[in-house]
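Q: What structure does this chain adopt?
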Amino acid sequence: MIQKIVVLGAGSAGLLAAISLKRKIPRLDVQVVRSPSIGVIGVGESTTPNFPYHLFEYLGISRKRFYELAEPTWKLGIKFLWGSRGRFDYTFQNQLDTHHPGLAKPTGFYCREDFNNVSLPGALMHQEMAFPRQPNGAPDIHAWHAFHIENKKFVRILEIVAREQGVSFIDGKVTAAEKSADGIAAIRLDGGERVAADFFVDASGFRSELLGKALEEPFVSFASSLFCDRAVIGGWNRTDEKIQPYTTAETMNSGWAWQIDHEKIINRGYVYCSQAISDEEAAAEFYRKNPRITDEPQFIKFRSGCYKRQWVGNVVALGNSGGFVEPLESTALMILCSNIRSMIELLIHCDIRPNPSARDLFNDLTYGSWQDIRGFLSIHYKFNGLLDTPFWRQVRAEADVSHVAPLLDFYHENGPTGFCRYRMPHTQSDFGLEGYLVMLVGNQVPYNNRYDVPAEEMEWWKRRKAAFVQQASQGIRSEEALAYVKHPGWTWNADRA
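A:
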């Protein structure tokens, strides 16, 4: 039986894992090994709706306290400056995986020419409103939202919660790992300490100290599907800019750029392919687009891919130590929370005596999710026809989309129908059929089974969209909504419950 777990790494992955383990299996002794020499990467964290679920419902963290300490802003989805349309919105409430009673076909068939204001969140995004407004003027905070969070603030609150839950900390840099028949027996730190445990969580980031280095687990590259391997990041203090309630993904000459809006700063980053553009050229393009950035450029190198097995012996890799893809769809915390819950539920089911079949199931689930994410992101490249640069011509021609080929084949013949779900890969991701339909319809990917919409149906559809626009126009912007939730008298009904 597992009695002591050591979590290697005190970033968001390690701390979320430690809190979750201690919260769900309180009898465990959970210790975090933290390296003071490794700082927190100062980029904004962009999330999906499974993240607030994990914090508030799964872990029971107080919403009021989280808002006070983490100071998040809201995200309704992603604004894509992408494809032949130039712009389309991907919201967290279904827009296309729907079939309205007044229409003969699923929604996607009515969005061939105009893919704006298809849902209330879409209309809110289009008008830069965060939420609908309640009759009393307060924000009506629906479940179809996620957060933008400053990474340092997020790690700070996680450490506070971890200590309150009874997680212990030890500072030191790993110098060696002692192997055992079952994986890892102990790790040694630069101060001379030997830290032993029954079970290890490798949350050491890209270094993957235990799974990758010590156990030498093979890494599966996604380079044939995802071409970018660098990012240059920067930001500036907010002045008169509105807080945008979405992440922006903007097509660039040799990749794409994100924008994440925090309350007081704006975070930008350019993800690019080092084979298509040099670091200096990427930085120059990035600064031309963002002249308010005055700091020296910060570069991050990464590789897209994952370890095929992320639970080997008594080691589970979580976060970037198990896999990473460019943050085009905010996948990092999404898959982290999903993997943490899978690990814990399997440990509980096995009475914290994990067996080979439980490990195999975890590995099948996690690898399947990474492959789904690979396929999903690959179609972002395959069908983005906005720019005609050498990079975009290459990725449209060469991007490996074989992992989602059955879905694409079905879509090309049948269009944006719900039957496409039966050709999707098995996954634990949040995207579902909705995500694929948004990227295919949003990029105007052609299909054979076209539907000539009767005039009366199109009028019905236009009236419905106009109603969304009208409701959104009465909405509330992020700045005003933040003022409400920061007010001392504001209470969260879910916290009281």
